[in-house]
Amino acid sequence: MKIISLLLLFLLPLPLLAALPPHSEAVPGGITIIDLGPAHGTPPVLHYKEQQVMVQQDQGRWKAVVGIPLATKPGTQKLTPAKGAPLTFSVQAKDYATQHLTIKNKRKVNPNPQDMTRIRNERGRINAALAHWRETAEVETRFILPVQGRLSSPFGLRRYFNEQPRKPHSGIDIAAAEGTPIRAPASGQVIDTGDYFFNGNTVFLDHGQGLVTMYCHMSRIDVQSGQSVRQGEIIGAVGQTGRVTGPHLHWGVSLNDSRVDPALFFEDLEGLLSRFQR
To answer: What pLDDT, in 10s, does the model give residues 254-276?
Structure first.
């Protein structure tokens, strides 16, 4: 019944709080928050795997908010500051479930040469959006759910399409009727929009300091590149474009170009799960 409980969590809109993400989980696909000392002067500049990381002020101290890639091996990881000695943190192992999906359009599993040319051309644009950095003093890191619907695929699943292994699931899927509104989970700016081979109609939102959210398989896009959006503002609607088995939103969160679990950006995860245990 854990999936049902998690579904009920995602159905609840949560209030905006100007604070760091409530859940620090140093696992592949997780987030670690590292205390950097008293918040005096300008914030420190640090990099992880050559990507600049978010640094926010919290209770009078600088905190690094670091996304950990899904492919990270357990063990010691290193943060490199602009000045001073490297900082280290430890990543623990985490086992994710396996999911088998049947895709009717075989080209969405094994693209032909023409498809591969398109995919390669799109990949650079997608990577650039997910690695985007915009310097800003404050970042909204408490989210609301972008779509009201059923959680159909959680984060991190080891996926098989037509019994062929593919990359782990780097977001969450929320099943909803086609045309259901999609809302910005936090304020930000539209980096890019497009129609991609696998992702279908897609929007990328930049929330600042390397925090980027992605919305895929949309039936329509209601925003354009460069546009500012507020938390809760409609950016488009649920669809079934790209590689899908039905109408849903694939919602991804990227932090310092690492795909991380969107659930970590919600308040009181454990409390809500325990409230809805059945």
So the answer is: 999 999 999 899 875 554 333 33
Q: What angle do CA 220, 225, 226 make, to 5 degrees?
A: 140
The alpha-carbon radius of gyration of the chain (Å, integer) is 18
| Residues 214/128, Cβ–Cβ less than 8 Å | no
- pLDDT for res 123: 92
Instruction: Write down all domains in the chain, each with its CATH number in brackets.
Output: 2-94 (2.60.40.1590), 98-265 (2.70.70.10)
Comparing 115 with 65, which gets the higher pLDDT? 65
Nearest Cα neighbor of 181 from 140, 224, 239 is 239
Residue 20 CA, distance from chain mean position: 16
Q: Which of 56, 236, 232, 69 has its CA nearest to residue 144?
A: 232
In angstroms, the CA 159 to CA 161 distance is: 7
